[in-house]
Automatic annotation (TrEMBL):
Keywords: Repeat, WD repeat. This is Uncharacterized protein. SUPFAM superfamilies: WD40 repeat-like (SSF50978). It comes from Cuscuta campestris. GO terms for cellular component: THO complex part of transcription export complex.
Length: 293
């Protein structure tokens, strides 16, 4: 699986969530609102590589960390409500659309399926090729794997039987996101491009070209109108899905590992390579709020 560059910390690290609310006006900069709220969540002892919102509960966030744990957080109380330790360093995580299962990938190309209610592993599979980000379709009967070969593997679920292989990019595919309206899926690649695919025809319909480095993470907003993407570039790109044009860019201090829109609100969570005073990974992720025009 895709590895993340960085120094292994000597001191224990903590995860923090900072919630900040901003107004987003179409094609105008984001301005800080008077109603700002900060919430800090602590618990992980290594960097958070990816996070995802519970599709059925807008206040719950699941995180995958190199400390081998998966944790479920309540953004209202700022507390960890569930956690489980898995076999490897976790770098990818996604919810099944009905909220019943969580899929987690680690650096050893091992996939683990968690039952959310019990918060325990119910299935594990090891792949013999580089597997990166993972996703279900909206109905939960198809499962997508992005690979280091530049392909997207389409599997049936829950059998995980291979249905189709898509040759998506000329370099490794790192990330994938499913349109909440069920029309498209997007793929981010080491070739710096993001491709948009028709999920019924399995054909590429558009590419996004604003990023210059390998694309680490992508996410559709809840209306399917916006696509957030990030790479080693020090900004998060927000693009119009229909036109492919840039809507806004959010500046960042460090490269981003994960961006994720809230399933019901215009809230964008992102986790990056923030460093502490010892130049070790801090394990920080932030949530930015947006007001629709």
């Amino acid at each position: 699986m895709r590895t993340k560059d960085g120094v292994t910390p000597i001191v224990e690290k903590m995860v923090e969530i900072h919630l900040r609310w901003f107004g987003l006006v179409k094609r105008r900069p984001i301005e800080h609102s008077a109603k700002a709220k900060d919430i800090e969540l602590k618990g992980h002892t290594d960097s958070v590589d990816q996070l995802c919102w519970d599709p059925k509960h807008a206040d719950l966030i699941a995180t995958a960390s190199l400390d081998k744990t998966v944790r479920l957080w309540d953004a209202r109380s700022g507390k960890c409500s569930q956690q489980v330790e898995l076999s490897g360093e976790n770098i990818n995580i996604t919810y099944k659309p009905d909220g019943t299962h969580i899929a987690v990938g680690n650096r050893e190309d091992e996939l683990t399926i968690l039952d959310v209610r019990k918060f325990k592993a119910i299935h594990k599979r090891k792949f013999n090729y580089e597997v990166n980000e993972i996703a279900w379709n909206l109905t939960g009967d198809m499962f997508f794997l992005t690979t280091g070969n530049g392909t997207v593997e389409v599997l049936s679920y829950p059998s995980l039987r291979l249905v189709q292989t898509l040759k998506a990019h000329t370099a490794g595919c790192y990330c994938i996101a499913i349109d909440p309206l069920g029309r498209y899926f997007a793929v981010g690649s080491a070739d710096s491009l993001v491709s948009l695919w028709d999920i019924k025809e399995m054909l590429c319909v558009r590419t996004f070209t604003k990023l210059e480095g390998p694309v680490r993470t992508i996410s559709f907003n809840h209306t399917g109108e916006l696509l957030a993407s990030a790479s080693l570039d020090l900004f998060i790109e927000i693009s119009s899905v229909q036109t492919g044009r840039s809507v806004h860019q959010i500046p960042c201090r460090d490269a981003m590992n994960s961006v994720e829109w809230n399933p019901k609100l215009n809230l964008l969570a992102h986790a990056g390579d923030d460093k502490n005073k010892y130049q070790a990974d801090e394990g920080v992720f932030r949530i930015f709020g947006f007001e629709s025009p």
